[in-house]
Design brief:
Shape: globular
Helix content: over 70%
Structural class: mainly alpha
Number of helices: 13
Length: 299
């Protein structure tokens, strides 16, 4: 991978890491489900009028939009609203990797090797460490919401895998079209029409509006577009490891912008989660190299 493409990959994960800071800022004035509704309303519109629907069945598109968008971000935003800090949220959400492995073993009969299983145990030990440190930055119910968000992301990954080759940007736009009515109805009943219809719009600060712009257009459109561009040119095993930097930028952004303290236990928990993820990625690469050697020996 050329150096300039490495920089693009780092820029993408930096955008996603700092997105957690934007979410935390936006949640000061906007309730979580309403924020989710706004994110995907503007993700989908007006783009659906110009971008053709991806060539997948409507039921598959609905499943993708509900799981990876509506449920994932509904749980994520709620967990952060309940008190989970931006840095910790960026880290906990990465356990979606291991939920994906578990679901793939059930749906696609993909059997994880011993290294992946050990990696999952190590990563979840990091999450358990977070749960043991209840404070203003860690709320047990909020932590549970993040874990449910990670599971929703993993469920969406399984649906995405079953779709086959598809235009990623179109999938994001049309998935957003599915997600925002679902979140709108939920917000109406859970948070009230006043919040959803912005009857108190004058109370929303300029920083919240800029945070929303970042969440929709920078994190969603720019981030996913750059990531799709990389995946079109390189294998997933070469691109995926860069996501390990998302919590790094999440913690960095939360410390600089939100003044969140980075304590020793956060560093230890983060090292456990990232170590588990590294073990998973190493196992993927090891198996990929072994498969190529077998293929070459047969040819």
């Amino acid at each position: 991978m050329p150096f300039k493409h490495i920089l693009i990959a780092i820029l993408t994960v930096a955008v996603w890491g700092f997105n957690f800071v934007s979410i935390k800022l936006a949640l000061h004035d906007i309730p979580p489900i309403t924020l989710g509704f706004l994110r995907f309303f503007f993700t989908a519109l007006p783009f659906v009028f110009f971008i053709p629907r991806p060539k997948v069945k409507w039921i598959a598109l609905a499943g993708y939009g509900i799981t990876i968008f509506a449920l994932q971000f509904g749980f994520l935003f709620t967990g952060m609203r309940l008190g989970m800090s931006a840095g910790l949220s960026s880290m906990v959400l990465q356990v979606q990797v291991f939920f994906t492995i578990g679901l793939a073993s059930i749906v696609f009969k993909e059997r994880p090797g011993p290294l992946k299983i050990i990696g999952a145990v190590v990563a979840f030990a990091g999450v358990a460490m977070i749960g043991l440190h209840t404070s203003k930055e860690v709320n047990i119910l909020g932590l549970l919401m993040l874990i449910l968000g990670a599971f929703s992301w993993a469920s969406g990954n399984i649906i995405s895998k079953s779709l086959g080759p598809v235009n990623s940007f179109a999938l994001v736009v049309w998935g957003g079209l599915v997600a925002f009515p679902f979140l709108g109805i939920l917000a109406y009943f859970a948070e009230g029409a006043d919040q959803l219809l912005f009857t108190n719009i004058s109370a929303i600060s300029s920083s919240t509006w800029w945070a929303l712009v970042y969440i929709v257009y920078i994190s969603t459109h720019v981030g996913f577009s750059l990531w799709s561009w990389l995946l079109e040119r390189y294998s997933a095993s070469n691109v995926a490891p860069f996501t390990l930097l998302v919590p790094v930028f999440g913690f960095l952004g939360s410390a600089i912008i939100l003044k969140e303290e980075i304590t020793d236990w956060k560093i230890h928990a983060g090292l456990l989660v990232i170590t588990g993820l590294c073990m998973n990625i190493y196992d993927i690469r090891r198996r990929s190299i072994a498969a190529k050697k077998i293929e070459l020996s047969r040819s």
